[in-house]
Structure formats: structure tokens, C-alpha cells
Amino acid sequence: MTAPGSPTPTAAAIAAEVRAGARSARATVDAHLGAIDAAEATIHAFNLVLADSARAAADAIDARVAAGEDPGPLAGVPIALKDNLCTRGVPTTCSSRILEGWRPPYDATVVTRLATAGAVVIGKTNLDEFAMGSSTENSAFGPTRNPRDPERVPGGSSGGSAAAVAAGFAPLALGSDTGGSIRQPAALCGVVGVKPTYGLVSRYGLVAFASSLDQIGPFAGTVGDAALLLEVIAGHDPLDSTSIDQPVPSYTEAVGAGVDGLRVGIVSELMGEGIAPDVRARVEAAAEALAAAGAEVGEASVPAATFGLSAYYLIAPAEASSNLARYDGVRYGLRVDGATTSEMMEASRSAGFGAEVKRRIMLGTYALSAGYYDAFYGKALKVRTLIIADFAAAYERFDVLLSPTTPTTAFRFGEKADDPLAMYLSDVCTIPTNLAGQPAMSVPFGSGADGMPVGVQILAPTLGEVPMLRAAGVLEEAAK
Question: Which residue, 110, 169, 216, 379, is the most exposed by fewest CB within 10 angstroms?
């Protein structure tokens, strides 16, 4: 494999060659496993590398091609899975001690769809514990490092998946995005990351953090590959009650459709205080590139977006405190013995959860408690409604919106670890979209003053993935 930033075959090209018999799936997998062997000790993108099962799956794909069969649109393409996606018989840890020894008895729907499409799962990636964090420093298995500069964080919570793609360990990866956990690490690592519309991709088999916010989405080296992966995993699933029952359009065709006549609004509330000048400059350059390609660019306003961070850190911990109550040492995972059942539960949860998870459980429990529910959680839900309304008003004037993905480029290890508020501010640009349930993506668009990647965020209305990908395709070309 090649160094970060060097040209490598796209997932689409790999799959086309494997299906045509011009490339071996086994050789492709072996090459990526070789890249992992060479650099994983430094990067630590994975909690578990599935070398044997990946080679077996690749051999099965090569046998199908030899027999004249079509293994699917991702034939032989290695893919990395965030370690909060259930994989049957394979340890799924959420990077937490509390799930020690747990092997799911079923596959997540997205994992089943990847297998049907011919993709080869090459490993389970590291994350902030239970997807709670913005730097992948909150993992029970140690931090992941940014392949662009190992002294810096890869972002989070899906830092392992972003790093795996950036390092050339896999052309594709899946992550989950609750408040920016796909887009923020994609920006910091210089890859493409997509948070789809809530309900477009089934959450069945995703270990829940905040159920009304979580969404699974792709990481890729190119916009075209991200669109291809989204096509594979999107679509209705009766196993997920929030799944949208609508046909999936061709996202890959959207990538090359251009932006002639597309109305693009720059979100003024996400361009002001706290945004580094070098990041703001790249967003302005992206807007100019879209205008030069035929888009109509103007200034957009989403006033309630400024309250997004405050609302999110009441809603998400409240849902997390409920979802994580099931980890009690009784049914599965870590158990620390105690004299009574309640003492066993307390000891298990004390030993099993890390500091950030405990912090959010306590925040959420407090926000939901008697006497505080209306003042905190109830008010946060009203703010969420305001954000949805303000986005709706903005999308009456614009087809897509533009903002920074993150306020700064990748920061150094330890820089924000002891200051939760500073860490939470890393997601100030991404959180509003999760609260609205709408799609957004990060596209690499040059570098900051420190030479580290800058991501530009494209936001779209509900089920607006097609215009979003149209804009992303143009930005990718302009960035070259």
C-alpha cells in the first residue's frame, strides 16, 4: 500500500477489476493486510484484524468469479467496521471493558448488506468508548493516531475507521455519527465521510448511544466510493422501526452531475467566533469553486444552530443513560462479583465504564430526574424543534448549505483531554444536523496553516443526498 495521500485504486475500480477477473480478491486483501502489518503498530486503527476470515471471504469471491457469477458491486473490496456494529461470532466491544468477551449472535443489517455486495470485512476499528468522544482518546484499548501526523488525534468517535481509510488499510469503512462522529474524523484525517438522513440506513445491530440521533455512514477516499457504499447500505429494513420505506436513488450518478443552477448557502452562524481563520478561508474557497462551476452562492442563516451544542449535551446523554442501563453485569459482558446483586452491578459498571461514559450517564440521569426534566431535557427538545424549523426556512432558499466541518485542524494528543467543554466544541458545526435528522458530509478541501487536512461540510435537507453529492463531486474536482 502507499503512504497517506498517495493515489490508490478506488473501491469502484477494485470491484470492477475483480468482477472482470482482472484482479484477484485474495491478492487485494493480502495487499491491504500487508499495509496493516506495516503500520498498524503506529496507528492503532483496529481493535481486531480479521485476517483469516478476510482471506477466506476473498477466496470465496474469486471462486464465484471463476464460476461466472457476479459477487456484487463491492466485489473483493476490503472494508473496516467500527467496533460498535454487531458481527456474528466476532467480538464487538464498543472499545469498552464492559462488553468484555461478548460475541453477538447476529449481524447488523449493514454487515449483511456488505456481504451480499461482495465486500470483505478486514477488521473492527477503534473508537471512543460507546462512541462518546471527539478524539478516540476515550478507548479502553488506547488511542488511535492520525496517519497524517501520528502526534495528532484522528478525531472521533469513529477515529479508527477514518484512520484506516487515510492510512490505506482499507478503501472503505463504516462509522456511526451521533453528533459528528463520521464527519469530524473524516475532516481531521483528510477523507470523505457521510452522515445520511436519519432512517436512510438501518440501525439494526448498531450498539445504541443516542437512538434518536445515531446513524451509520461511509468513510472513503473519494466521493464516488462514498456514494457507492451508501447505495449498498441504504434502504428500508423492517427490523428497524425508524427505517424509511422509500426506493434508494442512484447516488453514484449524482457525483458527476455538476452543480449548474444549484443554490448553495454559507451558514453564517457556523463561520464566526471559534472557527480558525485558515479553516474559514478553505470554506470560502470552496464556495468560490462551487460558484465557478455554476452554482448560485449566497449567505444562509440557521439562528438556532448556535444552541445546538447545549441541546445535544442534554438530549444525547439522556438517551445514553437509558440505553446503557442494560450493561449491568447480569446478562453479558464484564461481571465483577459483589456480596449482593446491587453491589455486583455497581462494581461491574464502575470497573467497566470509562470516565467520559460515566460523565455522560450522570449528565443524562440528572437531566431526566424529577424536578429537572422540564427545565433541562424538555427545554432541549424545544430547542431541537427550533433548529429543525430554522433549517427548513434555510432550505426554502437553498438546495444545500456549506460550513466548516470542524473549527480547527487535528489537535495534538492531550490538548483537550482534560477540558470536556473544549473537546465538545469540536462538534459545534456537526451537531445541528444530527438534531435535525438531516444528511451532511465532509469533503477534504486543502490544508490549514499547519499542513493538516481541512474538511468542508455540505448539509442538505431530509433525503437530500443527491444534491449534497452533486456539490461534493464538484468540490473534490476543485480540490485536485
Answer: 379
Decide if 82 is catalytic.
yes
Instruction: Decide: 1 and 169 in contact? Cβ < 8 Å.
Output: yes
pLDDT band at 250 (very low <50, low <70, confident <90, very high): very high
Task: Characterize 113-134 residue by residue with b for buried, 16 or more Cβ atoms within 10 angstroms of its Cβ, and e for exposed.
Answer: bbbebbbbbbbbbbbbbbbbbb
* CA pair distance 157, 128, nearest whole angstrom: 5
Confidence (pLDDT) at 8: 75
Specify if 16 maps to a domain: yes
In a domain, 433, yes or no: no
pLDDT of residue 6: 40
Tell me the one-letter amino acid at 302: V
User: What CATH number is associated with residue 186?
Assistant: 3.90.1300.10
Alpha carbon distance 227, 211 (integer Å): 24
Higher pLDDT, 420 or 182: 182
Q: Catalytic annotation on 301?
A: no
What digits encode the pLDDT tens for the residues 345-380?
999 999 999 999 999 999 999 999 988 888 999 999
The whole-angstrom separation of Cα 467 and Cα 400 is 7
Q: Are 60 and 18 in contact (CB under 8 A)?
A: no
Task: Exactly one of 24, 82, 95, 124 is catalytic; name it.
Answer: 82
Report the number of distinct structural domains present in the chain: 1
Considering 24, 95, 176, 181, which one is annotated as catalytic? 181
Convert the pLDDT of each residue in 412-431 to its tens digit: 999 988 888 888 889 999 99
Residue 340 in any domain: the answer is: no
- For residue 135, the enclosing domain spans 11-255
Q: What letter does residue 324 receive in the DSSP assignment? A: G
Look at residue 31 and tell me if it is in a domain: yes
pLDDT of residue 417: 81
Tell me which of 24, 135, 157, 202 is the catalytic residue.
157
